[in-house]
Specification:
The chain has helices at about 1-25, 55-70, 75-90, 115-120, 125-135, 145-155, 165-180, 185-195, 215-225, 235-240, and strands at about 35, 45-50, 240-245, 255-260, 265-270, 275-280, 285-290, 295-300. The chain is elongated, with a radius of gyration of 22 Å. Helix content is about 40%, strand content about 10%. A six-stranded antiparallel beta sheet has the order 3-8-4-5-6-7. The protein has a two-stranded antiparallel ribbon with strand order 1-2. By secondary structure, it is of the alpha+beta class.
Length: about 300
């Protein structure tokens, strides 16, 4: 019994270290906001928790804007600009009217090439259009919010966006505390958070979740949760990522073992402190373990996929 209690205490300590490390990666410090977003009109669920200063409709639209940015692999700053813009243009409401032919969350105009009225009134489409034009602005990441938003919107009142920046930042902080924005450090946190949620689930060869996993099924799903597609099997994942020299590995990197003719036969996810999360073998379960062992092959870092430039 003493041994079991000591083991449980050690596991709790590991979890505490992991949570502290992940928290230090996140941009926002707010927590407790759950978000599950789907395309409007689908059979899925869209819900959100409270964000101070926003009602349920506004919070749901903000969550969708943030989630769309995550799906595109954009940093949290892009979501702050987008949410502030929508606050100014529509008060975060999907309006079926506006000045001249302006419509929707961002008051985009069909006559200015933003899409059909039906498309613009789809909040996910409208958000993707905003982000696509935003990232086409040279140096947008370094611009003040007013200039970045104005470069996209061409408003008659460009300085008006500034008043919404504090609320937009607060909103994105609250949302990304659970959704995790995909800037470099937070991208790793998204991968680790998914893997951590699978701890204790049984290993099953060929399984990709949600009830059980094999090693590469776990890593593939963890990166999918961060909006990044990687190959299915460990050997292909090894060839897919960018090599990381030993000693320079970071949380979220993949760690490989047991080199075989076709490539490594096992893979885990680095969480820091010389430890990884992995699905070891038949009869075992997803767990935290050291990765410094004799059959260690090396490390790779999958690259985030980015939204492309507008086509015209």
């Amino acid at each position: 019994m003493k041994s079991a209690a000591a083991g449980a205490a050690l596991l709790l300590l590991v979890f505490a270290v992991f949570i502290a490390a992940a928290a230090s990666i996140f941009t926002g410090s707010s927590g407790g906001f759950g978000c599950v977003m789907t395309t409007p009109g689908s059979s899925g669920t869209q819900k959100g928790g409270p964000v101070a200063g926003l009602d349920a409709e506004q919070g749901g639209n903000a969550a969708l804007i943030v989630q769309t940015g995550l799906e595109l692999g954009l940093p949290a700053r892009a979501a702050v600009i987008a949410v502030a813009t929508a606050l100014q243009e529509s008060q975060l409401r999907n309006l079926p009217y506006g000045h001249l032919d302006s419509l929707g969350l961002f008051q985009q105009r069909p006559s200015q090439g933003w899409g059909t009225p039906e498309q613009i009134l789809d909040p996910r489409y409208a958000a993707r259009q905003f982000y696509t034009r935003l990232i086409a602005v040279p140096g947008w990441e370094q611009l003040p919010l007013t200039r970045a938003a104005q470069a996209v919107q061409r408003s008659a009142f460009p300085d008006a966006y500034a008043r919404w920046e504090p609320l937009a930042q607060q909103t994105v902080d609250a949302l990304t505390a659970s959704c995790v924005a995909l800037i470099p450090g937070e991208q790793a946190a998204a991968v680790i958070a998914y893997a951590q949620a699978q701890l204790g689930k049984p290993y099953l060869w060929g399984a990709e979740g949600p009830a059980s996993f094999d090693c590469s099924g776990l890593t593939m799903r963890a990166y999918q949760a961060a909006g990044i597609t990687i190959p299915r099997v460990a050997a292909d994942q090894w060839r897919h990522g960018l090599p990381v020299p030993p000693g320079q590995e970071q949380p979220g990197d993949l760690v490989f073992f047991r080199m075989e003719a076709s490539g490594p036969g096992h893979v885990g996810i680095v969480i820091g402190g010389g430890r990884m999360i992995h699905a070891p073998r038949t009869g075992d379960f997803v767990k935290i373990a050291p990765y410094q062992r004799p059959d260690l092959v090396g490390f790779t870092r999958p690259a985030a996929e980015r939204v492309g430039h507008p086509s015209g």
